[in-house]
């Protein structure tokens, strides 16, 4: 904590003198001034009397980072360190009087649960502020995955869906931007280092490019994981097996190169495989049937339409429209007044092990 109260005056720890009767501006309990040579000055609650307002322990990274962030974002408006918000019982690391909407900066360096992130995010929204999460070193070292995306990712103009990391040592911002999901389920993003607020506002200056999926490796990994009795893949394998097919023997005609928002669980390709296996059990089917099967397959692949700070409510409908259009273009389906009619079956591998052997040769 950088700000404490002495009598009725707020005092910054860097200007505080030892021996004062400092109290927490939020809960009113006594706090202790820590002022050494290794870390910047800060106040801390006594162990037996923790603050009733949620927050994280004051590591050197957290203390130093808050001051750096206050300077970095100063051009957006007056910055208040550790702004107390009594109506929601929260303390923003930095509060920016930005127009037309205030911004609450949260510099997260320590572990935090999804529920706590959701509660704080919702709290800032209740008071009309935009919650701006920035992550510290422990998070910057993690591999991009759903845990990070679900809790901290948000939309930023010019950057798309992104995660923000503040590097205290380099005093600059790392933006993992245009986060998306490959058809094989892998999360991917572009990464840019930002040295000024003007650079952040301007957005990235390079074109986005994504590699085509490695189908040979994807098919090989499917077979490997199924042989290892993957609990995640078994329900998908069962669904496809009941239609007379094997998951690893999927038709290449079902493959797409389009990326999706990172909400498709195991990936849109597995979803397309399951939906197609079910659809081609019919001679004709309606849009209602296709949507029902699409939603059921979405649950099977572990998809979700909601993260803490972003949503994809029409995700399944858009993916279904793309799949049906591809199957019509491939002359597997024909559009009829009340839905679709099956013209031909996509080619599944009768002996998927032969496909795997060919794929292994491609893998070298």
TrEMBL record:
Residues 58-142 form the Competence protein CoiA nuclease-like domain. Residues 15-53 form the Competence protein CoiA-like N-terminal domain. It comes from the Bacteria. InterPro entries: CoiA-like_N (IPR057253), CoiA_nuc (IPR010330). Pfam families: CoiA_N, CoiA_nuc. This is Competence protein. The lineage of its organism: Bacteria, Bacillati, Bacillota, Bacilli, Lactobacillales.
């Amino acid at each position: 904590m950088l700000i404490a109260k002495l009598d009725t005056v707020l005092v910054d720890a860097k200007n505080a003198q030892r021996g004062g009767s400092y109290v927490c501006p939020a809960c009113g309990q006594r706090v202790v001034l820590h002022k050494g040579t290794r870390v910047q000055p800060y106040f801390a609650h006594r162990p037996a009397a923790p603050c009733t307002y949620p927050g994280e322990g004051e590591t050197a990274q957290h203390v130093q980072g808050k001051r750096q962030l206050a300077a970095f974002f100063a051009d957006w408006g007056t910055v208040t360190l550790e702004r107390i918000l009594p109506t929601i019982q929260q303390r923003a690391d930095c509060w920016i009087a930005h127009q037309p909407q205030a911004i609450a900066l949260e510099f997260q360096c320590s572990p935090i649960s999804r529920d706590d992130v959701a509660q704080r995010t919702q709290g800032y929204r209740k008071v009309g502020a935009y919650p701006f999460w920035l992550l510290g070193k422990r998070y910057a070292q993690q591999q991009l995955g759903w845990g990070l995306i679900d809790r901290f990712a948000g939309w930023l103009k010019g950057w798309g869906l992104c995660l923000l990391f503040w590097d205290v040592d380099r005093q600059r911002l790392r933006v993992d931007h245009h986060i998306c999901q490959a058809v094989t389920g892998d999360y991917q993003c572009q990464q840019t280092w930002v040295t000024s607020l003007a650079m952040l506002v301007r957005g990235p200056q390079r074109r986005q490019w994504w590699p085509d999926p490695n189908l040979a490796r994807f098919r090989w990994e499917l077979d490997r994981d199924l042989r290892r009795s993957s609990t995640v893949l078994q329900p998908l394998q069962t669904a496809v097996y009941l239609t007379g097919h094997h998951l690893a023997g999927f038709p290449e005609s079902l493959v797409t190169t389009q990326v999706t928002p990172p909400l498709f669980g195991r990936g849109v390709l597995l979803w397309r495989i399951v939906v197609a296996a079910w659809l081609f059990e019919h001679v004709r089917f309606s849009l209602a049937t296709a949507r029902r099967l699409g939603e059921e397959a979405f649950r099977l692949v572990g998809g979700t339409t909601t993260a803490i700070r972003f949503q994809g409510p029409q995700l399944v409908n858009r993916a279904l429209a793309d799949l049906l259009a591809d199957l019509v273009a491939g002359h597997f389906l024909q559009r009829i007044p009340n839905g679709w009619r099956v013209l031909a079956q996509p080619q599944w591998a009768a002996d998927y092990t032969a496909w795997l052997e060919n794929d292994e040769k491609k893998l070298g």
